[in-house]
UniProtKB/TrEMBL annotation:
Gene Ontology cellular component terms for the protein in this record: Golgi membrane
Name of this protein: Polypeptide N-acetylgalactosaminyltransferase
Family from the record: Belongs to the glycosyltransferase 2 family. GalNAc-T subfamily.
GO molecular function, one term: carbohydrate binding
Keywords assigned: Disulfide bond, Glycoprotein, Glycosyltransferase, Golgi apparatus, Lectin, Manganese, Membrane, Signal-anchor, Transferase, Transmembrane, Transmembrane helix
Major subcellular site: membrane
Lineage: superkingdom: Eukaryota
Cofactors named for this entry: Mn(2+)
InterPro entries: GalNAc-T, Glyco_trans_2-like, Nucleotide-diphossugar_trans, Ricin_B-like_lectins
Topology versus the membrane: Single-pass membrane protein; Single-pass type II membrane protein
Hydrolase among keywords: no
Domain Glycosyltransferase 2-like: 136-321
Biological process annotations from GO: protein O-linked glycosylation
Amino acid sequence: MRLHPLRLVRSSLLCFLILFCLVGLYHKFAGNHLSKSENQNANELLSLNKQYKLAERIDWENYTFSAIERSRRGPGENGMAVRLSSEEKEMSVRTQNKNGFSIYVSQKIKVDRSIKDIRHPKCIGTLYSSVLPQASVIIPVFNEHWETLLRTISSVRNRAPSSLLKEIILVDDGSSREYLKDKLDNFLASAYPDGKVRAIHLKKREGLIRAKLAGAKEATGDVLIFLDSHCEASTNWLPPLLDPIAENYRTVVCPFIDVIDADNFEYRAQDEGARGAFDWELYYKRLPRLPEDRNHPEKPFDSPVMAGGLFAISAKWFWELGGYDPGLVIWGGEQYELSFKIWMCGGRMIDAPCSRIGHIYRKYQTDFPKADLGNFVTRNHKRVAEVWMDEYKEYVYRRQPYYRNVDTGDLSAQHELRKRLQCKSFKWFITEIAFDLIKKYPLIEPVPLAVGEIRSVADPSLCLDALGATENVPVRLRPCIKDRRGSNGVQNFAYNYHEDIRIMNKLVQILSFDVLI
């Protein structure tokens, strides 16, 4: 039976209207997870991505400021180590208990001290797009030392083009030190009257992960940059982080992380770059740069996993990925969760050699958080493994069987997120992105190269003994058990395939340990 022409036209129009309404409803509800301001930022960033291709490239360096920095003299200037007398060294050691680094030395250095430019020479004068997004810098703070925190703020602000820095947000994570309350707010209002530096105060300690999320929700910039509160940003650190994001908003950029010595505050390079990775106990590791990357030391290069604390990500991409898993608590595992999401769900992560930021590596953990969830790092790691690592999680559980009995909490929202984003498999991540990881850290651990006691060369009657040793308690030299029947001790070690020493038949890895005689 043939349809009447008029009836056919009416049917076609009706189908078109239904389709139009469905498309409209999809766009309305698909963006419901973004706030009005976040949608505005996302639209602005997409517009910037289009402008990027047409924009001229310029040199963002402030050569006048750099020349002034090079001429400065004084304790710690140009990132030099602070030299102390014997008496001062004793005073310095006594001030390390509160923060894990020398407060005495930090107070001798100006809060706006100069830093030597240790970038690769080809970084100087590098051209970046003249159309770059504005950044919100988010700095979680918990009981940070006053001068050290101010030095972080000063370096971030002074060594970045002001037009690219939208704001610096300090997130006070329930600090117990009074100077991080009203005194901090009053100082910021006085020192930065333009309002670009401000603090928000959480009512109680939430932990690093949730403090970062709180800061991200407050941010109004196109790009979110997360830093620690004991850092110093180096020369022209910001444009190299923003330029790749302006080109593609799904690119996440990490700076090179330099070392600020915890004892003398010397600023020095850690190395000239590496690919972030992990072993199957989920310890963060570093793999050598690929040969093609080493040929261009100033160029950004792909990195499978971020170190965690310092990186730049577009606000649009961060929230599309769901931010951090809200079920992760305190700290630990968040760098893996975000790294896996970035790569597996359609993004890319790179390290930018021309952006360098120094970081104080504390000599020991201070003010360790108390959680009601037992070993929160283990719980976090298992949440990440269950959601993102597919069948590869078994290689984690084989090495640490107690993971199987850890309660992860509800994972349904995270599984739904992965399904909605149509993310690739973890096998794809290992095969295509972290293809050099398994060669260094095999799925099945090889037989140790050597097993047995470790005797002293100077006194063969003494052996290394790990009885009572922990992360903060050193391994000691004690009389060898084999020479004394019935004596107690832990003296059986394994020299492993990747050239570290572990306690035999123990899952706890003892690396770079101290020995007390």
